[in-house]
Amino acid sequence: MPRPGVPRPATREFRLPNGLSVVLAPLASSPTSSVWVWYRVGSKNEVPGITGASHWVEHMLFEGSPRFPKGAIDRAVVSVGGELNAFTSTDFTAYLTTVPREHLDVPLEIEADRMTRASITEAEVARERTVIHSEREGNENWPEFRVEEELFQLAFRIHPYRWDPLGRREDIERLTADELRQYYHRYYGTRNAVLVVSGGFDPRATAEEIRRKFSGLPASGDDPNVTLVEPPARGERRAELTGPGTTPYLEVGWRAPAIRSPEAPATLLLELVLGGETRLFSASGGWGHGHEHPSSRLYRALVDPGLAVRAVTEWQPRVHPSLFTIQVQASRGVSLDRLEVAVDSVVERLAQRGPTVEEMGEARVKVRRGAALAYEGASRTSFRLGLFSMFGPDGFEDEIFRAILRTSREAVRQRAREIFSTASRVVVRYQPTGGPSGD
Amino acid sequence: MTDPRAPLTLEYADSVGELRLVRQPPPAGSSTCSITYVGPAGWAFDPPGRGGTARLVNQLMTSAAGRLDRVALARVLDRLGATLGHRAAPESGEITIWGPTSEWGRLLALLADVVLRPRFASSDLARARRQIRERQLREIGQPGNRADRELLRAIFPSGHPYSETGFGSPRSVDHVARSDLVRFHRAHYTGGGAVLVATTPVSSREFVRAARRTFRELPTTRPPDFPALSAAPSRPAVRSIPLRGRSQVEIRLGGRSIARSDPAYPAAYLANEVLGGRPLLSRLFQRVRERGGLAYHASSGLEAMRFGGYWFAQAGTGRERWRRVVPMLRDEVRRLGSVSIPSAALATIRESAIGEIPLALESTAEAHELAVDVAYHGLPADYWIQWPDTLRALRAEEIRDAARTALDLRGAATVVAGPVR
Questions:
Q1: N or C: which end of chain A has fewer CB within 10 A?
Q2: Number of independent structural domains in chain B
Q3: A78 contacts on B by Cβ (under 8 Å)
C-alpha cells in the first residue's frame, strides 16, 4: 500500500478545449477566494538582447487593455478589499489576486482579459522603463543581489539561467514596446497557462463561470520548453567583486539537478541537513527562506564558532538543472579565505560520511510537518497547487513527498559527493571597499 | 457553516496575576494556533549606555530556555512543526509561538519556558552581538536602513524613546553583559502591563486553566514607567546622506504623529491610506509611479503606538530622479491636510480598507496579528467588528483635519540616502 501523500484540499481539475488548465479547490469556510494564473513562461524563454522581457510583460499586464484601461485593474480589485500582485521567476510567471469571496467574479474577468488582450502601448512602456530600472537599482543596493547575479552568470554560459529575471541593465534600456508585444503574444495564452482558484465558492457555478469567461479565448501560446543544455563545467569558476557594503560575503554554487530529476529528493534532503530548510516543504507554510536554523550543519560549523553571522543553503526547485548554493556573511575580522576553507570542510565531511541517522530523521520530520501545514488559507492553497502544476503532471507533489521519505542516508551521501565536486564549483567573493558608507 | 468572521470575536478571558489573557478562535478550517506574550520590554527601556539590550534580550529569549540549549530548542520546534518568533519595538517586546493545534498544550508550555526561563548563555550572547553589529553596519551603509534611522533621529530629539531603532552602537552592545540581560528580563518580562494572546480553538476556560498552570511563576512586579516624552516641537530638517556606489536613493519624509488611543486615529488611518498606505490606489503610488514613472516603490505609513507615534512618506528612486520625487511627496502631504478628499475617492479607499478584513482571516498567523494589536492597545473586544462602521462614519472634513494633526508637514524632516551627490 502506498504511503499517504500530502494532506491537501480536494480539487476539481479540467481543461478547456483551447488548452487552458483549470484547478479548483473549494474551501467551504474560507472568507476569501484566491485566483492565480500561472504561465510556463519566465526568463528561461528570453534571449540576450531581450533579457527582462518576462518581468516587463508582468508589469505591463497591470497597465491596461481596451476593456480595462490603465488603473482599472487596480481599482477593481483594491476597491473591494482585494490584493493583487505578480512575480516572475526563471521558469514561470504568476498573477495572483485574493478577494473577499463574494467578489470572485472580479479577478476572473481580469485574468480572462489580460491573458491575450493587454495593450502594451509605447507610452506605457516608456513610462515603465524607469520603474523597472528603479526596481533593479533597489536590488543592486544589496551586495547579495550582485553576488548572486554574478554567480549565475559564471555558472551558465549557454542556458538562460545565466541572467536574472529582472534582466540586464542594457536590455532594460533598449527593449521596445514592439518586442514586448511580440514576446507577450508569442507565449501568453491558454496553452501555457494554469488557472488556479481556491476559496469559498461553489465549484459547479465557478466552473461554469470560468468556461463562460475563458472558452472564447483562442488556443494560443508557443511551446515554452527550452531545449538548450548547459554543457558540463570543466573546472572551477570564480569571481572577486568589490563595492559598497558592510561585511565580506561569499557565495558558492554547485551544479544541481532539476526538480523532476530522480536525484531531486536526495538533493532536497541535503539542503535540509546542511541549511535546515527547504522552500518546498516549509513548516511556516510560506515560500520564505533564510531563517536561522541552529541545528543545521552549516549553522553549527560557521555561525556558532563565530566565523559567520549568517549562513544559508538554497536549492531552488527549477525546471532545468540549476545550482545548489551556500551563502555566507562573514563575521567581523574573519577573512573570506578562512570562510571558504570552512565551507569546504563542511561539505567534504558530508560527502564523505553522509548525514547522521538523527539528521535524516529531523529532515524527514520537517518535510512531514511542512507538508501537513502547507495548505492553510485560499492564497497559500492556490500558490501551492499552481507551483506544483508548473513542475509536472498531477500528483507530482505526492510523488516527490513519498520519494523524499523513502530516500536513504546513503543516497544523500552519494548526492553530496556528486554535487560538491570542485569541477562544477562556482565561487563569488564580495569584498566591501571603504567603510560601510562606501567612503 | 462556520462564520468565516469568527476570529474577530475576541475574548478578554481572565488573568494570571497581572498578566491579562486574551483568546480568539482561529479561522475556520485552520489546523494551527498562535500564542503571543507581549509586554513593556521595548528598547525605550534600554539602560543608559547599554543600547541594544532590549533587542538582545528579545532575540536571545528564543535561543535557549529551561533545559533546552539552542540546538535542543531548535530540534523540539522542528519536531512539533512549530516556529518561535520575536519582535521588539520601542515600547514592547513580543514572543510568538505558532504550530499545529494538535500540539497546543506543548506550544503553550514551550512559550512559558521561553518567557520565564531564558538561558542567556554567554556563547549565545557572543553570537547575538556579532549579528547585531552587522545590523548596525547595515544601518550605516544600506540606503533604506540608513534613511529610516536618520528620519527618526531628525523627528525626535536625542534621548526620546522613539528616536532610535534599538540596535545601539558598537560600544553599547559590547558593554551589555549577561547580567544586564538577566536584569532587563527580570524587570520587563513580567505580568505587569503584559498580555498573553492565543488564537486557538480551545475554550477560554481551558486556555485560562493552561495559562495559570504554565505562567504561574511569572513575576507580578510592575515594570518601570515608560520614559517621559519630550514635548519639544520638531524642527524641520533636511538631511542628505551620500552613500557611494549605491544605485538607488531612498527618500523619507516624516514627522511626529498621534498615539493609537487618540480618538482621531481612525480618521488619521484613512488619511494615511489615501496618501500612501493603500497599495496601488494611494496618491503617492499613483503620482510617483503610475503617472510619473519615477520610482518602483512610493508609499506612506503611520506608526501609532501607545504613547505617541510618527508618520512617513517614502520612495526609492534613481540618482537622477530623486530631486523630482521629494517635492511630490511634500505636495501630496500638503494637499491631504488642506483639501477634503473627493467623496468618490474616499469611498473607494474606505471600502477597500473594510473589504480587506476577510483577507486577514485567511490564516491563523494573520488573524492572530489582529488580536495582538487589539489586546496590546487595550481596545474593545469587538474592535474589528466595529471597524467598518467606524470608518464609514468618518466625513471627508474629519479626515482632512486629522491629516493636519497626524500627518503634519510642519516640523517634518526630509532624509535622502544613497548616491545623492
A1: N
A2: 2
A3: 278-281, 348, 352
> Last residue of a domain, which of B148, B182, B214?
B214
Residue of B nearest to A296 (CA): B71
Same domain, B172 and B293: no
Domain with residue B408: its CATH number is 3.30.830.10
b/e per residue, B194-203, with b = 16+ CB within 10 A? bbbbbbbbbe
For the segment A135-158, what is each residue's pLDDT rounded down to a tens digit?
Answer: 999 999 899 999 999 999 999 999
Q: How many Å apart are CA A279 and CA A295, to the nearest integer?
A: 17
Orientation angle between helical segments B343-355 and B265-272, nearest 10 degrees = 100
B80 and A369 within 8 Å at the Cβ level: the answer is: yes
Q: Long-range contacts made by residues A407-413, C-beta under 8 angstroms, separation at least 24?
A: A407/A265, A407/A266, A407/A269, A409/A354, A409/A355, A409/A356, A409/A357, A409/A360, A410/A354, A411/A265, A411/A266, A412/A266, A412/A269, A412/A270, A412/A273, A412/A354, A412/A355, A412/A360, A413/A350, A413/A351, A413/A352, A413/A353, A413/A354, A413/A355
Q: Which residues on chain B are in Cβ contact (under 8 Å) with A284?
A: 83, 98
Q: How far is A136 from chain B (nearest CA, A)?
A: 9
Closest Cβ–Cβ partner in A29, A131, A304 for B293: A131
CA atoms of A44 and A194, how far apart (whole Å):
18
Distance, in Å, from the CA atom of A360 to the CA atom of A410, rounded to the nearest integer, reads 11
- CA dist A285 and A282 (Å) reads 5
Cβ contacts (< 8 Å) between B76 and chain A: which residues?
none
B290 touches chain A (CB under 8 A): yes
* Short-list A382, A279, A405, A269, CA closest to A8: A382
pLDDT in tens, B44-103: 999 999 999 999 999 999 999 999 999 999 999 988 989 999 999 999 999 999 999 999
Query: For residue B230, is it within any domain?
Result: no
Domains and CATH numbers, chain A: 12-214 (3.30.830.10), 237-432 (3.30.830.10)
Q: Is B244 on the interface with A (CB under 8 A)?
A: yes
Nearest-Cα residue of chain A relative to residue B28:
A29
| pTM of the entire predicted model | 0.94
Q: How many CB atoms lie within 10 A of CB B106?
A: 16
- Counting DSSP H helices and E strands in chain A, the numbers are 15, 11
* B134 contact A CB<8A: yes
